[in-house]
Amino acid sequence: MLITVNGQPREVREHLTLLDLMRQLGVQPEITAAQRNAEIVNRKAVDATVLMDGDAIELIRIVGGG
To answer: What CATH number corresponds to the domain at position 8?
Structure first.
């Protein structure tokens, strides 16, 4: 199935969770904010969020500093 990740089309397997996707991309879920179709995904729900064909995913790394 085809999804969009940070504006780039990406072919992924069906029944892939958001957490699976983050791991495939080498993204640390603990320090990454995720949006699915313009809605923020609660950090506790990334492992239960199953991606669907056509989903638009935005992954934003959280950076602290001062």
So the answer is: 3.10.20.30
Q: How many domains does the chain have?
A: 1
Concatenating the DSSP letter of every residue in 1-66 gives -EEEETTEEEE--TT-BHHHHHHHTT--GGGEEEEETTEEPPGGGTTT-B--TT-EEEEEE-----
The answer to whether the CB of 57 falls within 8 A of the CB of 33 is: no
Q: What is the pLDDT of residues 24-52, one digit of tens each?
A: 999 999 999 999 999 999 999 999 999 99
Structural domain boundaries, residue 14 = 2-61
Residue with tokens 């199953």: 50
Q: At which residue do the structure tokens 């699915």 appear?
A: 36
